[in-house]
Amino acid sequence: MLNPFERLRVPPKVEDFIEIQARRLSSIGGKTVKEREIRRLKNYRDGLNAYLTFVRSFPKVDDLHPFYRTSLEIESGSLDRVKVCLSEIKKNAELARRILQQYEDLIRRNDEMEANKLMRSGFGRASSILRRSENCLSWLIQVVKKLSMERAIDPYMPTVIVSGPPNVGKSTLVSAISSAKPEVASYPFTTKEIHVGHMDCGIKVQVIDTPGILDRPDYKRNVIERRAVNALKNLQGLIIFLFDVSKSANYDPEEQLKIFNDVKTLGKPIVVVFNKIDDVDNEIRGEIISKINDRPLEISSEKRIGLNLIRREIFKWLKSISQDPSAVLDC
């Protein structure tokens, strides 16, 4: 399933559109003055279809999968504003088309000497009406551009979501077990986007590298953190939660455990993983073990230690959810 915003064609901004139409006037002729001026207005009227097509092809907000509906809300800040702006763009484009049609009819009924004056009056009135949508349209174009650049996620495909605090090695793990190639560096950095890769386990599985999340209320989270929470809440799948138990861990056990407990409240299957075990701090490791009921897998995604343990858990999970378990092969 494609990102529903990926192929959505955005129309030009209002002032750009008006300028394009004005430049075209001199290139549009006709056998008579009336025919020429009518054709000029008709060309403008036809161009307005780009705005109506944009509104008609915009995904229905209430019909979107929760993941993409939340993505739209995150990028726009308000689903209600999206709906209002779509309605405003449609209303003004339709009104501008009616005005142009009226002026075409006036040109037909009036003397030829009035044709150019009427064309310019109709052009100006339609442009004034279209300008009412300028703020809404410019804003929606930016929202759609952001959404169209997001990786296509199929919310109906078996999904492994790699989660945890920032800088615990999520990107390194995802690149090690899937086809995804998220940015990986030897210095601490934070993933800003959701990266998607795939595994072939007899059936196709998507693996998602989410931005790190911090222990704070949702209203205090930034856009990057909200993207991660959106994936965790609205994609059905297996969560692999990474703890950093190394000597260079950026977050202490208490901070990591708070984030883990928040993720557990989602009620989804979860695999607990201790990462960077090649540089383990036994005090951190022991403190976290004492506070969780789960038996952790111990790996080093950078050194490729224990990755078979991760693949085995994914295999077991796929077997448990598959309608045809025999189709599931080793990952």
TrEMBL record:
InterPro entries per the UniProt record, alphabetical: G_OBG (IPR031167), GTP-bd (IPR006073), NOG1_N (IPR041623), P-loop_NTPase (IPR027417), Small_GTP-bd (IPR005225)
Sections of the chain in a coiled coil: 86-116
PROSITE patterns listed in its UniProt record: G_OBG
Claim: Acetylation is one of the keywords in the record: no
Residue intervals of the OBG-type G domain: 158-319
MF annotations from Gene Ontology: GTP binding
CDD domains reported in the protein's UniProt record: NOG
UniProt keyword annotations, A-Z: Coiled coil, Nucleotide-binding
The UniProt record lists the keyword Glycosyltransferase: no
Protein name, entry field: Small GTP-binding protein
Source organism phylogeny: Archaea, Thermoproteota, Thermoprotei, Sulfolobales, Sulfolobaceae
